[in-house]
Each structure stands twice: as C-alpha cells, then as structure tokens.
Amino acid sequence: MDLTLLMAGVLAFAILMYVLLDGFDLGVGMLSALVPDPDWRDRMIDSIAPVWDGNETWLILGGAILFAAFPTAYGLVLPALYLPVIGMLLALIFRGVAFEFRVKARRSRRLWDFAFAAGSGTAAFLQGVLLGIFITGIGVDTPLGFGSVIFPMLTGVALMAGYALLGGTWIVLKTDGPLRDWAARSSRQLLLVVMAGIAMISAVTPLASEAVADRWFGDVWRTLALAPVPLVTVAVGWWLWRALEGHRDGLTFRLSQVVFGLGFLGLGVSLWPYAVPFSLTIWEAAAPASSLAFTAIAVVCTLPLVLVYTGYAYLVFRGKIREGEGYH
Amino acid sequence: MLELDPLLLSRVQFAFTIGFHILFPTLTIGLAFFLVTLEGLWLRTGNPVYVRLYRLWTKVFALTFGMGVVSGIVMTYQLGTNFGVFAGVTGPVLGPLLSVEVLTAFFVEAGFIGIMLFGWNRVGPRLHFGATVMVLLGTLNSAFWILVANSWMHTPAGTELVDGQFVVTDWWAVIFNPSMPYRVAHMTLASFLTTALVIAGASAFYLLRGRFLPEARRAFSVATLAIAVLAPAQIVMGDLHGLNTLEHQPTKIAAMEGLWETTEGAPLVLFALPDQQAEENRLAIEIPNVTSLILTHDWNGEVQGLTAVPPEDRPPVAIVFWSFRIMVGLGFAFLAIGFIGLWLRFRRRLYDAAWFHGISLAFLPAGFVATLAGWVTTEVGRQPYTVYGLLRTADSASDLAGWQVALSLLLFVAVYGVLFAVYLVFARRVIVHGPDYDEPLPSRQRGLPARPAAHPLPAE
C-alpha cells in the first residue's frame, strides 16, 4: 500500500473538513457584522459556540499531518507564506477569544463583536490569499512576485463569499423566524457571488498557471473526463438556488457544502500530485516510511472515533437553537 | 543602522509565544481534574456546594481553555514559519508525535467541551460527567504527547540522521526517551500545584471578605491539602529530574549551578552574577560541597563544569542560573505554605487565620512564575542546540527577512499583551462575582433536565 498516497488523502480530508466546518463558523462570524438586531447576533453565535473549537481542530490536524508526512513541504511552504500565515493566525486568535470575551464584557461588548466579525473575515480572506499564492506556485525563493498579487486577492474575496454562504445556510438550518428568512435571502445573494467567483477562478487559474492549464486543457479526452466537475457544480448551484426559496433548511446547508466540496475537487485536479506546486510532488516531499507508517496507524485507529464523537456532539446540539440556551 | 537578525527575532518570538501559551494549559490541566472531582462529588452527595463550585470554576476553565486553544494553533504553524529548516529535519520524528496529540487530545477536548459548557439541558447528568472526564483525559493526553516531543529534543533517541533528516528506527525509544518520564511527571505536578495555588488564592479572597463561606471553606480546604501533598512531591520529582539531566545534559546542570570548572566537592552557589566572557562568577555567595552532595550524594563527588565544553557549546549561563533559582526558591515557598496549611488544619484554625489567607492570596499567581522559570531553565539550558548535541539552533531557522519577523513579533507582543490584560480583567471579574446562588440547580436524576433560568441571564 502506498502510504504517501494514503497520507495525502488524510491531509486532503483534514483540509476539506476544515473548510466545510470552520468555514461556516467564519461565515457566521462575517454575517454577524451585518445583522440588524443584536439578539440575532447572539443567536447566531450561540449556534456555533458548542462546535467551533472542534471545527478549528481540523486546521491543527492539517498542519500536524503536513508536518508529519511531508516535512520538507511544511518547512518550505510556511516560511514562503510567512506574513499571510501569521496574519491568519492572529485573525483566528481574535475570532476565538471573542466567543468568551463578548459575553463577559460590559462596556467593551461591541468591540469584541467587532473583533469576532473582523477576525472571521480576515481569517477567511487570508486563507483565500494563501490558496491563491499556493495555486500559482510559490517560488521557493521569491515569496511574493508581483504577478501573484491580484490573483490571491481574488481567491481571498471568493473564499470570504464561499464561507459566508456556508454560514448563511447554517443559520437557515439552526434558527427560525425573521433571522432564518434574512439568512435565506442573504444566502441567495451570496450564492450568486460564489458562483461568479468559482467561474472567475476557474477561468483565471489556467491563465495564471501553465501547469493548471495543461492539466485541464492539455488533452481533449482528459478535458472531457474532467468536464463533469464544473457541470455538476453549476447544477448543484441551481438546485441550491431553488432550495433556498423553499423550507428544506437541512438541504440548503448540505448543498452549499457540496458546492464547496466540488470546488475542492476541482482544485485537487489542478494541483495533483504536488505537495509544493509545481516543484515538489507528494512522493518527493514524503517523510521516511517509518514516520508515514506510524502516522497512518495513528490515523486509522483514532480518526473513525473522532468522527463518531464529533458527530455525537453535533447530534446533542441538533435542531433549531433554543432560547436562553447559549452562553452562560 | 540597526541590524534585524531574523534568527534572534525568531527565537524571541518563539520563546514569547510559547511562554504565553503554556500559562493556559498549565491551569486547564489542573482545573479539569478539579472539575471532575467536584462533579463526581456532587453526583455522589448531592451537596449543592459542589455544583456551585463546579459552575464557578467552569467559567474560569472556559476562559482559560479558549486562550490556550487560540495561542496553541500558533505553535502548530510557527515551527514551520520560523524554524522551517528544523521542521524539515525533525518532521519525521516530531510530526507524527504532534499528529497523535491532535488526534488523541485536541479532538477529544474540543468534542466534549461543548457538551461540558452548554450541554446541561441536552444530556443527562452521567453523560455530562462523562464529558467532563473526557475533557480531563484530553488535557492529560495533550500534555503527555507534547512533552514526549519536547523531551526527545533534549534527549534524542531511537533515530539516526540520514541525508540531513532524522529517520526513526525505533518509535518505542523515541517515545520513551530518557528524560520523558521525568519531564511529564514534573510538568503534570507543576500544573496541579499551580492550579491548587490559584484555587487556594481565590478561596482565601472569599474568606478574607467573609463571602460565599460554604464554598470558600470547602475549596480552601481541598486546595491547601493539595499543596501540602504536591509541593514536597514536586521537590522530590524535581530532584530526580535534575539527576536525569546531570546524566544526559551535564552542561545544563553546570549552568544551573553556576559551576565553571569541573570540581570535586562543588559548592552550592546561593548568589552570583555569572560572567560568560570571563568564565567566572562575580559576587558569589557559596556553601561548600553542597552541590556535590545533592548531585552525587557524596561530599567530595566530582561535578562537571562549563569549561569542560568549548565556549560555543555553552548555554547563556546567567539566564539558566537565575531562572533555576527563581523556580527552586518558589518551590520551597510552596512547601512552607503546604506545611503551614497542615499545621493550621491540625490546630482547627484553617478558616480563621487571616494572615494565612493573605499569604495564599499573594501566592495565587506564583505557580505560573515557577512553571515559566522552570521552562526557561530547561529550554535555555538546551542551547545552543534545538535537538541536543545534534542540531544547532543557528542551523534551524527559516531564511526570512529580518523586517518580516520584527513585524510579526511586534504584532504578537501587542495582541498578546492586550488579550492577557483582558483575560486577567475577566477572570478576576468571574472570581470576584463568585458562585451563583440564583441559578437553578441541575437535576441529578436521569431524564429530568434542569429548568432553564426563568429569564435570560444578563451578560456579566
């Protein structure tokens, strides 16, 4: 069995789980700045309070697996992305402490509400920026070329919109009344932005990177084989658009996650099989076999359990948020 | 022009961010144990004192846990951002250990803390207790695995260097490396002792004010008893840890003792200003032969001095020397507090001795100081290596521009400074507010969820 392949799969899974789960936390954070009613904001934040920490842990798992299985890539990529990574960490710090601080604050409550929203938005934007730099291929020696500035900005804004869509449909799922309807309306607007963003990034990425262009369009048969990915994305987007008109609140959240998953799949197609695009493949960056085996055993033994009790935690807090149940 | 040395700045940033981070897990590990005890006692006895204490300290726990989480994520990525070379070289060893920590500790804590904090009305009391226990197991697991990784950097074992990268030949030897058991025990005790001092200090505050007396007495009694047990245990453990260090890192011990020349019958240096250049101590006050006695259990035993290794292989002596003295000095102060507490308990004056309550309150934060001093001793004492004897700190850092690291360090200092101040204000507010008598008690019976509060509680 190719352990490198397995660990690349685990890494991809951790990142996908992170964007799907903490994605909606960050989206709720951004939307919390826009709601007209402070009570709505409290309910929104209460809806993610029991789960956000677990969601964020997938980011730590991603970092740890990258460190364990692809140490060379970890040691090359992170210094090359130094300032955006540090900025993202600082933004996540503000987002994280705001949960506790805002309910304990008296005069400074609005300040921590702002920190919560701004931290969420900045973290989302910088994660998109990191993605953009990563896709265009980080020069191992030149961290920030001029040509790779506009594109990362685009991916940054697109990821903000995407997370906001996840957050919007989460609020639809978890609340009722005027807040739910507001979230459904917002989600429709966000869906338009997200679909436009996906289209733009799909069009621009091949222009920004020859390697990606070759991957999608280098061979007619491959182009045909890959065509379902964007087509299904459009179809699911349409389905979500229709679903947001109705009242199938669980469906809308799941569909927005599917849209995200498909975008992630498209990204995987573009970047395969690189650990550092487009200079180091996963096999070149892989740790020695003894380390891959140890990590693989640990993952196989524990990750199913993690999924079970994380699922249980979601089950405990399922359904629309109840009045007066949130923060102490 | 001022030269910004990225290596030095990265080291300062790492020391600052990890020193900041460790404060919070130090408290949450011990507090998690305290909370499990309280909830278990409440389920057994039904005494509302326990559940009120549980809720009070849960608020402190939640606040502290949040700080630990957000400052901990920084650590996961900072190894790569600032010490990318180190990360590439040691990743095959440290990466899997950190992965196991995430999988067996962070997910466990995160998965159950939601139920612990918000689940009173959603699950039965036994399940809720189970969630608290799982959070404790998560914190203990986390401490274990991160200390395994840290210990391997001090006493590397089970690996060989192949093409400039560590390759693990024996995972058992990596995990049970020579200093691991001592470090895990020493740090776990430090966490429990620090927590006991915090609880004793807060309870002494209530006793001094004459407020919340049933809760304050119960907690003060438990905490002072814990100090009386933990302080001597920690001194014994510290001594064992020191002997282990003497075996594997004699240069660190020489720096801790301020011993320049290899000496038979080495003195105990009580006070000195170690001079790295001149290789001697200034203004030294010494007790003859005692260091030899402590380290070799022989009045005239030989102790290796700093000059046994070339100057470029020595740690900064003054920092190690003084941080060690701060830690040991505080350790004996805790021992005294433990004994005084026992004596007052024996005389049945534990709840009346205001002077002792004042001392306890003054020592509320002292455990953190001792813990930090201990970490400074061991980590600075490991210099000039990141992996002891095998990888130098100077060869570990990322190739970053000085201004980038200066900027990030400035941001970390500013952000952490603000957050720490806010944390202290809010933690103090929770403690001053004290246990809540208005909140309805949760049910101990299965299937009878507590009545939610009649009115949403106003934000504090």
What's the layout of helices and strands?
The complex is a heterodimer of chains A (328) and B (460).
Chain A lengths: L2 H29 L6 H11 L3 H18 L1 H10 L1 H23 L4 H27 L14 H25 L3 H31 L1 H8 L2 H7 L1 H16 L5 H23 L2 E3 L3 E2 H4 L3 H28 L12
Antiparallel strand pairs in A: 1-2
Helix pairs in contact in A: 1-3, 1-6, 1-7, 1-14, 3-4, 3-14, 5-6, 6-7, 7-8, 7-12, 8-9, 11-12
Chain B lengths: L5 H40 L2 H35 L1 H35 L6 H30 L4 E4 L2 E4 L2 H5 L4 H30 L3 H36 L1 H8 L5 E2 L3 E8 L4 E8 L2 H7 L5 E2 L13 H30 L7 H9 L3 H15 L4 E3 L3 E2 L9 H32 L27
Antiparallel strand pairs in B: 1-2, 3-6, 4-5, 7-8
Helix pairs in contact in B: 1-2, 1-4, 1-6, 1-12, 1-13, 2-3, 2-7, 2-13, 3-4, 4-6, 6-7, 6-11, 6-12, 7-8, 7-10, 8-10, 10-12
Q: Would you mind describing this structure in some detail?
A:
- The complex is a heterodimer of chains A (328) and B (460).
- Chain A is mainly alpha-helical and 328 residues long.
- Chain A has one domain (17-316): Formate dehydrogenase/DMSO reductase fold.
- Chain A is built from 14 helices and 2 strands; from the N terminus they run H-H-H-H-H-H-H-H-H-H-H-H-E-E-H-H.
- Chain A has a two-stranded antiparallel ribbon with strand order 1-2.
- In chain A, strand 1 and strand 2 form a beta hairpin.
- Residues 140-144 of chain A have low confidence and may be disordered.
- Chain B is mainly alpha-helical and 460 residues long.
- Chain B has a domain at 23-177 and 415-448.
- Chain B is built from 13 helices and 8 strands.
- In chain B, helix 1 runs antiparallel to helix 2 and helix 1 (6-45) crosses helix 6 (180-209).
- Chains A and B meet through helix 3, helix 4, helix 5 and helix 14 of A and helix 2, helix 3, strand 2 and helix 13 of B.
